[in-house]
Design a protein that fits this description.
By secondary structure, this protein is mostly helical. It has nine helices and no strands. Helix content is 66%, strand content 0%.
Length: 189
């Protein structure tokens, strides 16, 4: 999320145009974070909209305007978690949103590997690598101790490494110790 401090300051001062620009600039991030938690398009949209509304209502109470992103992400996470607890438990797999399948193969593999993580490990990874937050900022967003967030990130990295190693194609694996492949078509390819 890349809003200028000036835009946040103008919005806090009551500039309606700046507020509209600010909300438009945070909407995509709000949706993606909410979706990473609830895994449902309509529920993620509702949670993101509610987060934007809460941010709009509470913007004047923001003391450290340079910390807008962390403050906002915390609101989004809380709204998505709230929506998740009320979401129907029997929702079918087909209703889960899958987006942006036009990425290169390795991005798809990484996303698929991230999807296999349990939510407590997936969300810190999403906040770290998709939104560029540091460990302390992730801790603030999630309301968890920084040491816990570091632990979650370490576990997530290990599990992702295993998942990505397991999903690599045969041509991406290293050659056997004797340097020969059992299937010569793999070696030729």
């Amino acid at each position: 999320m890349k809003q200028s401090d000036e835009l946040v300051s103008r919005a806090c001062a009551g500039d309606d145009a700046a507020l509209a620009d600010l909300i438009c600039s945070v909407w995509p991030d709000a949706y993606r974070i909410a979706w990473s938690i609830v895994r449902n398009r309509s529920v993620a949209e509702d949670a993101a909209q509610e987060a934007c509304a809460r941010a709009w209502r509470g913007l004047k109470s923001l003391r450290r305007r340079e910390r807008f992103a962390v403050w906002f992400y915390r609101i989004v996470v809380n709204e998505a978690r709230r929506a998740q607890t009320t979401m129907r438990r029997d929702e079918s797999v087909e209703a889960v949103a899958v987006h942006d399948e036009t990425s290169p193969d390795d991005r798809i593999a990484v996303r698929a590997a991230i999807e296999t993580l349990e939510p407590r490990l997936r969300l810190p990874i999403v906040l770290r690598y998709y939104y560029g937050l540091r460990g302390a900022e992730i801790a603030q967003v999630l309301g968890a101790p920084a040491v816990t967030v570091r632990w979650w990130l370490m576990l997530a990295h290990r599990r992702l490494r295993v998942a990505l190693d397991d999903s690599a194609s045969p041509s991406q694996h290293t050659a056997p110790q004797d340097g020969r492949f059992k299937d010569e078509s793999i070696a030729a390819g």
